[in-house]
Amino acid sequence: MSATSPNTAPPQPAYTQSLLRHFADLRDGTHGEAVSRQDKEALFRSAVELLDPFARQALEEINEVLMLDQGTVESSGVGRSADAGQVCSWTLAWAEQRAAGIPPITIHAFYGRGFHHPHLRGGTVREWPLNVFTRQQAAEELPILRAIASAEVHNLVFLADYTIVPSSKPGTTTSTR
Fold it and tell me: Residue 127 has what pLDDT?
């Protein structure tokens, strides 16, 4: 049963709101309210500052539980990428990873020179483990399932354009901010 009254729409999940903001940016040619590259880069720097404690938290949680607190979490800070865009990376490195000659766990925020607006990605993320044996374990996968579904719709827009998402078409009124 819904906790909203019959005249109130149920709240939209945060991850769908993020996608709606993203598609509105594509539709409107903006990023937030910014139009110029300079203003979009300022918003990117602000977004990195806002994300920093959460990116660190995610990596610190992995460090504590999986690396037994033997790793080091670092941020590159905002800098220029090879394509003259902007990038910030958060990493978790530990002795065994370095000895194996593989990259650290990485979260990238990047605003490529040819991009309309910034994006997030991992260093290697493609597959995700599926070790679910109970209803509770399945429910605990919801944030991961949301992230995968959000990434899928985002990538499908890259294969076509934002108009494949009905709520993003011009003239559609959906609250995105």
Answer: 77
Burial environment of residue 92 by CB neighbours within 10 A (0 to 12, 13 to 18, 19 or more): buried
- The encoded tokens of residue 50 equal 């806002």
pTM recorded for the entire structure: 0.82
Q: Which residues contact 154 (CB under 8 A, 6 or more apart)?
A: 19, 22
pLDDT at residue number 1:
45
Return the H-helix or E-strand segment holding 65. helix 37-65
- The strand pairing partners of 74, in sequence order, are 91
Question: Quick one: CA dihedral 107, 129, 141, 23, positive or negative?
Answer: positive
- Residues 135-141: contacts with CB under 8 Å, at least 24 apart: none
- Cα distance between residue 26 and residue 118, in whole Å: 12
Q: Average pLDDT for consecutive 10-residue bins of the chain (177 residues)?
A: 62 87 90 92 94 96 95 97 93 95 95 90 83 87 87 85 84 64
Distances (CA, A) of 25 to 19, 64, 168, 173: 10, 37, 9, 14
**Half-sphere exposure of residue 150, counting CA atoms within 13 Å on the CB side?**
20
79-80 and 72-75 as β-strands: parallel, antiparallel, unpaired?
A: unpaired
Residue type, 123: G
